[in-house]
């Protein structure tokens, strides 16, 4: 028959008319259902394990009494009933699908006797994957603590169902339905899943139409498939630990043998004995963190006749223990090689993507498959490391955990490379799939042309219908379900007939395999972190918080650090889907907090060392000590943790901003160190901490305003005031330096504490002045002082209008001082006049400090004025507009601040006048008549002050003087302040004391000149020893003249200060 005639007739046929396609499509759909059920079973296994662990944790954490913990456990199990129902329905559906698969296999074999084993192998692959998950479920439920609590939980529900309150809300039908559901769930919870499956297959066997030929064919293919599984296990015979790390072949072989034994399919004795011996070598195979499984025991439980009682169980774990160090070293080497390969793969991917798709599809296809292989290798290596330690009951060491973390970073690197170029990659993938589709269609067309060589017409029609089914399945998007049909269809005729040459058949198989991998590339690569195996392993790794934090702290590459956080965040999200409670924070949050704290402490220490580097000795060998540089970690991009994005650089900037602000507030005198650290943070770390806007203080800052306010009595007596420079200097200190307080320092304190401190300080000074004026009044009220002052007052009243009496006599002031000295001296040798002078000086220091506060406040307000608008902003109309309450309140507060600033900056508040008005009514009271004669004691006070100042300045030229001062303008201010307050300033000027002192100093100079002239005349009359007399006289005259000049200088300074001080009280 002509080839074109056959093809033309085949195209006119429909699938419904071809009997061979029905079993194929049915088996393909059943295989797809097996794959879906396998994926769902893996997810439910994770949820079951987490539900079990959560119930145990809840029981331990709830109270110390047993009843409280048990009650909480029962309520927790009630909350998980819906999940238990999902597990039951899934397993029921899996049993039904497996029954249908065996029924369809029997029908398929009965229809197509000449069936190829590759077609059944595809079906067996899907079936044993589902059997693997059923076995795992069986072991998880059997070894869980839920099975031991279920009987008690069932009795508890039955007791509740029998109560009268339950009948009020539920009917008998609902209660009976609950009882039936509990019995069904109990069959799953108790670990009898696989036994139920075998019992259902036994019922299926009775319904299956098995003839001798069919049985022989199924037996033949089953033996071949078992031989393939045994071969896959024995391939790892030199490294038997691989089957512990990846036990899927052991589970599949065990489950498949049990199913075949239950169906009554006879297996080859030698093959069966070989398979059982291979399985018997493996004991305590880890399936999960707390679930272990033995193939030998499992077969003895579900297929007792296959295992003889005298069989000895051999275990290869001893050899496994002996070579664990070598295996770990090999894994570490593999990890490094994978890192190198993945880095090169990423570079090549970027190069191909940058070059464009044209002419690069072959390279791109190769790289895509390589990346998928690397991802599978990384995931398999992680799974193997975890399963190895579980099998050997060894704790996960720090080195192993570091290796796992590095592998997770590699996995994230693979995903990041794809995700950053996802749009381009998807276009490339579409082109690749189209290219592979065209290749497959071309080979199918070649197959149709070669079908003329087939002799039997029925066989030709079967192959043509299969080809037509393949073409239809490949014409749409090559999804996983379509490719399953294609694989079954191709395996139906490839290898049996010589339709295509061997090379063409191999090419068609490789192309279909490549298409399978490409269509699942996005799900396989981006879904690596969704793998139940990795999620379960991560739950085991996440228990070592300390080691995880240590690993993260060792990362100095921002790219690797970001990959680590991204991997942990994805796994936390996936693990959170299966957790029943989220009481503890996620692992990514914990390690992020640990990394942030570590970097904050480390970088702060780095800044401190750099700030104090000038104090360190220079190292002769600077490279002997290795320093770790974490500065690159600051540039890490934003990372997603617990649903929110965190920028490590912003966190560090906030930390340093708060740290520098707090430390500057605690130690304002050391602000320059923290300012230097802030500058180094910007220069070395590219961080920009916010300026604290606190006052810039220096080491010689002195005492803070608050401390002065609290100790104003000590301050006024131990500090000397300079009116022109407006500063206070400490007179005596144990330190090497004297404290200085100026306008800038007060302005800084005012900026720190606010302008409100001025009024408080003035109130404290007012209280201090009250005490000093009490001492002042007491001294003048003394009978000795008052009587002498009254005597001076009468003399001054009698002679002030006499023409020769122009000023107060110098002799009377000098006599007054001598009389006061006769009253006694203190233990320090000070007279009452000296003590009274100190009181006046302390009053002047307090008043001078008020002036300094006012100047400092103006300085601080002038600084704050720079933050105001240059133009007069009138917000009075804001009330007319419909603004929000928050905005209106902010405007009002701003206006209050501006008005307060203007009030403090203006001169409307004269604190000198306030202090005068506070004391003047009391001191000028007519009852205080003893104060009216105060102006007459001022000449003696001035003489005492001048004598004191001359002595103080002479101390400057001597060593080891404990207390001396260069100036003391507080006396002048205090004197003018008291005279103004007593309204005696005019009387003081009437004394003409400045004129008296000038006349006295002139008279002393005249005496010196007279002595020189007299000595010159005597020298001319008596020429004996003229030189000795002249030399002694000249020395005496010079000393006396220097003394007179010093007094004259001090008098001039005092009078200038008095004149300046009068301006303050005008």
TrEMBL record:
Residues 15-530 form the WASH complex subunit 4 N-terminal domain. GO terms for cellular component: endosome; WASH complex. Residues 550-869 form the WASH complex subunit 7 central domain. GO terms for biological process: endosomal transport; endosome organization. Residues 887-1066 form the WASH complex subunit 7 C-terminal domain. This is GH17673. It comes from Drosophila grimshawi (Hawaiian fruit fly). The gene is Dgri\GH17673.
């Amino acid at each position: 028959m002509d080839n074109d005639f056959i093809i033309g007739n085949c195209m006119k046929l429909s699938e419904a008319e071809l009997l061979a396609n029905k079993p194929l499509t049915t088996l393909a759909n059943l295989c797809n259902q097996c794959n879906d059920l396998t994926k769902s079973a893996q997810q439910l296994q994770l949820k079951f394990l987490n539900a079990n662990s959560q119930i145990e944790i809840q029981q331990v954490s709830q109270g110390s009494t047993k009843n409280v913990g048990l009650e909480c456990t029962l309520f927790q199990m009630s909350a998980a009933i819906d999940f238990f129902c999902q597990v039951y329905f899934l397993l029921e559906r899996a049993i039904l699908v497996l029954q249908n698969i065996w029924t369809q296999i029997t029908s398929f074999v009965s229809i197509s006797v000449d069936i190829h084993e590759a077609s059944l192998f595809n079906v067996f692959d899907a079936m044993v994957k589902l059997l693997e998950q059923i076995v795992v479920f069986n072991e998880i439920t059997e070894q869980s603590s839920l099975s031991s609590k279920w009987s008690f939980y069932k009795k508890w529900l039955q007791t509740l169902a029998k109560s009268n309150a339950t009948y009020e809300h539920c009917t008998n039908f609902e209660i009976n339905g609950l009882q039936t559901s509990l019995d069904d769930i109990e069959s799953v919870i108790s670990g009898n899943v696989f036994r139920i499956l075998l019992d259902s297959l036994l019922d299926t066997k009775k319904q299956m139409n098995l003839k001798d030929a069919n049985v022989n064919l199924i037996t033949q293919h089953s033996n071949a498939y078992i031989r393939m599984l045994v071969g896959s296990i024995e391939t790892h015979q030199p490294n038997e630990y691989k089957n512990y790390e990846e036990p899927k072949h052991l589970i599949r072989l065990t489950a498949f043998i049990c199913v075949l034994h239950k169906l009554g399919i006879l297996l080859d004795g030698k093959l069966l004995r070989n398979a059982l011996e291979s399985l018997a070598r493996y004991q305590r195979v880890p399936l999960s963190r707390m679930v272990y499984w033995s193939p030998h025991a499992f077969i003895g439980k579900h297929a007792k006749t296959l295992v003889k009682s005298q069989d000895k169980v051999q275990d290869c774990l001893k050899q496994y223990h002996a070579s664990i160090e070598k295996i770990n070293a090999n894994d570490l080497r593999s990890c490094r090689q994978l890192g190198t390969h993945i880095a090169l793969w990423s570079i090549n991917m970027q190069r191909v993507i940058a070059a464009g798709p044209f002419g690069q599809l072959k390279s791109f296809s190769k790289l895509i498959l390589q990346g998928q292989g690397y991802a599978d290798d990384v995931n398999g290596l992680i799974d193997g490391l975890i399963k190895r330690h579980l099998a050997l009951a060894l704790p996960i060491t720090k080195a192993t955990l570091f290796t796992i973390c590095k592998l997770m970073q590699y996995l994230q690197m693979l995903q990041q490379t794809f995700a950053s170029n996802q749009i381009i990659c998807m276009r490339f993938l579409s082109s690749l799939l189209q290219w592979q589709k065209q290749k497959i269609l071309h080979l199918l067309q070649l197959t149709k042309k070669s079908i003329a060589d087939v002799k039997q017409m029925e066989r030709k029609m079967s192959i043509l219908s299969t080809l037509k089914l393949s073409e239809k399945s490949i014409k749409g998007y090559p999804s996983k379900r379509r490719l399953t049909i294609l694989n079954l269809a191709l395996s139906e005729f490839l290898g049996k007939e010589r339709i295509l040459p061997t090379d063409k058949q191999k090419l068609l198989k490789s192309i279909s395999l490549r298409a399978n991998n490409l269509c699942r590339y996005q799900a396989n690569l981006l879904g690596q972190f969704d793998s139940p195996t990795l999620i379960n392993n991560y739950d085991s790794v996440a228990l070592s918080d300390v080691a995880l934090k240590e690993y993260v702290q060792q990362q100095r590459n921002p790219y690797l650090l970001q990959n680590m956080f991204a991997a942990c965040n994805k796994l936390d999200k996936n693990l959170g889907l299966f957790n029943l409670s989220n009481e503890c924070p996620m692992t990514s949050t914990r390690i992020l907090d640990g990394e942030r704290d570590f970097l904050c402490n480390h970088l702060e220490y780095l800044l401190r060392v750099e700030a104090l580097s000038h104090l360190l000795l220079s190292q002769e060998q600077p490279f002997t000590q290795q320093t770790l540089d974490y500065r690159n970690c600051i540039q890490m991009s934003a990372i997603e943790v617990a649903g929110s994005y965190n920028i490590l650089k912003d966190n560090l900037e906030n930390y340093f901003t708060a740290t520098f602000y707090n430390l500057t507030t605690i130690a304002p005198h050391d602000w320059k160190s923290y300012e230097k650290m802030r500058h180094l943070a910007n220069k070395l770390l590219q961080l920009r901490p916010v300026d604290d806007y606190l006052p810039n203080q220096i080491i010689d800052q002195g005492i803070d305003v608050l401390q002065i306010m609290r100790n104003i009595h000590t301050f006024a007596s131990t500090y000397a005031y300079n009116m022109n420079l407006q500063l206070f200097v400490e007179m005596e200190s144990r330190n090497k330096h004297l404290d200085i307080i100026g306008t800038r320092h007060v302005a800084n304190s005012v900026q720190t504490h606010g302008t409100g401190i001025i009024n408080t300080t003035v109130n404290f000074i007012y209280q201090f002045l009250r005490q000093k004026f009490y001492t002042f009044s007491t001294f003048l009220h003394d009978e000795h002082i008052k009587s002498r002052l009254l005597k001076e007052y009468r003399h001054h009243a009698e002679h002030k209008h006499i023409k020769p009496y122009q000023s107060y006599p110098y002799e009377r002031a000098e006599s007054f001082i001598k009389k006061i000295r006769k009253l006694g001296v203190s233990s320090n040798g000070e007279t009452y006049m000296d003590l009274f002078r100190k009181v006046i000086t302390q009053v002047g220091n307090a008043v001078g400090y008020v002036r300094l506060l006012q100047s400092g406040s103006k300085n601080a307000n002038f600084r704050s004025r720079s933050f105001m608008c240059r133009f007069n902003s009138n917000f009075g109309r804001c009330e007319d507009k419909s603004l929000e309450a928050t905005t209106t309140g902010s405007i009002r507060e701003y206006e209050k601040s501006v008005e307060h600033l203007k009030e403090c900056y203006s001169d409307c508040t004269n604190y000198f006048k306030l202090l005068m008005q506070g004391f003047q009514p009391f001191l000028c009271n007519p009852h205080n008549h003893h104060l009216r004669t105060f102006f007459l004691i001022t000449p003696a006070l001035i003489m005492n002050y001048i004598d004191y100042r001359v002595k103080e300045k002479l101390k400057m030229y001597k060593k080891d003087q404990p207390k001396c001062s260069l100036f003391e303008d507080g006396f002048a201010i205090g004197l003018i302040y008291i005279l103004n307050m007593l309204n005696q300033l005019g009387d003081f000027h009437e004394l003409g004391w400045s004129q008296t002192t000038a006349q006295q100093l002139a008279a002393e100079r005249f005496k010196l000149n007279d002595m020189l002239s007299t000595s010159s005349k005597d020298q001319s009359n008596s020429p004996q020893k003229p030189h000795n007399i002249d030399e002694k006289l000249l020395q005496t005259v010079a000393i006396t003249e220097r003394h007179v000049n010093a007094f004259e200088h001090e008098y001039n300074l005092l009078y200038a200060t008095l004149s300046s001080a009068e301006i303050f009280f005008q």
